[in-house]
UniProtKB/TrEMBL annotation:
It catalyses: cytidine(1402) in 16S rRNA + S-adenosyl-L-methionine = 2'-O-methylcytidine(1402) in 16S rRNA + S-adenosyl-L-homocysteine + H(+). InterPro entries: 4pyrrol_Mease, 4pyrrol_Methylase_sf, 4pyrrole_Mease_sub1, 4pyrrole_Mease_sub2, rRNA_ssu_MeTfrase_I, RsmI_HTH. SUPFAM superfamilies: Tetrapyrrole methylase (SSF53790). This is Ribosomal RNA small subunit methyltransferase I. The lineage of its organism: Bacteria, Pseudomonadati, Pseudomonadota, Alphaproteobacteria, Rhodobacterales. One of its GO terms (molecular function) is rRNA (cytosine-2'-O-)-methyltransferase activity. GO terms for cellular component: cytoplasm. It comes from Roseinatronobacter monicus. Keywords: Cytoplasm, Methyltransferase, rRNA processing, S-adenosyl-L-methionine, Transferase. Its EC number is 2.1.1.198. It holds the Pfam family TP_methylase. Its main location: cytoplasm. It is found in: Cytoplasm. It is an enzyme of class 2 (transferase). It comes from the Bacteria.
Amino acid sequence: MPEHEDDITPLTQDTRPSASFASGLYLIATPIGAARDITLRALDLLAGCDILVAEDTRSLRRLMEIHGVALGGRKIFAYHDHNGAQMRPRLLNALQRGKSVLYASEAGTPLVADPGFQLARSVIAEGHEVIAAPGPSAMLAALMVAGLPSDRFCFMGFAPAQAGARRKYLEEAAAIPATLIFYESPKRINRFLDELCEILGSDRQAALCRELTKKHEEILRMPLGDMAQALSDRTLRGEIVLVIDRGEKQIADAQSLDDALGAALETMRLKDAVAQVASDLDLPRRQVYQAALAKEKGKTE
C-alpha cells in the first residue's frame, strides 16, 4: 500500500494500448471460475484505465496474464476491508486529478458481498462518475441453474456468525415472499442447513450450487430436509451458493395484519385477539402482540 497520496501514480512508463477512459470509478466483474468468462469490455478497461485497484492483487494480476493484458508500467493497488479507510482518500485524490480508476473484486460482481461498497459510496458522494462493466456473478449464476422462481428474489449474503443474530436473520428471511439466495462457507453449511430446516421448514425446495463454472461444479436440487441429510456425512469444499424457494405460504402484509387486529380487538381481549390473529395469519405471536400494542397505543394518543 502506498505511504502517500502521490504514490498512486498512473504509470511509470506508458506502454499500454492507445485507448484511454474518462475520469471515473470503473467497477468490473471478474470470473468466478472459468477465466474465459471475462467480458471484452472488462479487458478493454484493464488495458486502458490509469489506476488498477483490486480486492486481491494476485488474482487480478493472474487474470491479466492469462488474457495477455500488459500492466504497462502500472501497479495494482490493494483495496480490502482492512485498508479501505486509508485507500479511499488516495483514490478520491486520483479521481480529482482526472484519472480513471478501475476496481475489481476477487471474483464476481463488485459490491455483492464485497468491500467495494464504501469506495463506490465515497466516490458518488464526491460527485465523481461510477461506471459498471457487468459480467460474472455467483448469485445470478446460481439463480439461473437452480430451477426455482426467478421473477422475485432476495440476496441475503452471508448469515451472521452469532447464533442469536443468525436466528433472527433467518426468521426475517422466512417472511420474505421471494426466492432467497445465500452465500455460505463449506465449513458451516451443515449447521446452516439444519437451522434452515427448523426455521424455514424441511419441505422448502432448494438448490445448493458449489464451485460454479469450475472443474468440480456440483448442483444439488431437493427439499432442505433431504439436502441436510444427504450432506450430513460429507465434507464440502469450495464456494457455495444456496438458493431456496419462497415457499407456498403467503405472508400477510402490514395492512392485512392491521385489519385482522382491528376486527379481533372489537370482540376480544388483547391476549385472545393476538392468539387468534397469529393463528389465522400464521405469524409469530410476538410480532402480532407488538402490532396490537402499537394499535392500542395509537387509539389513546
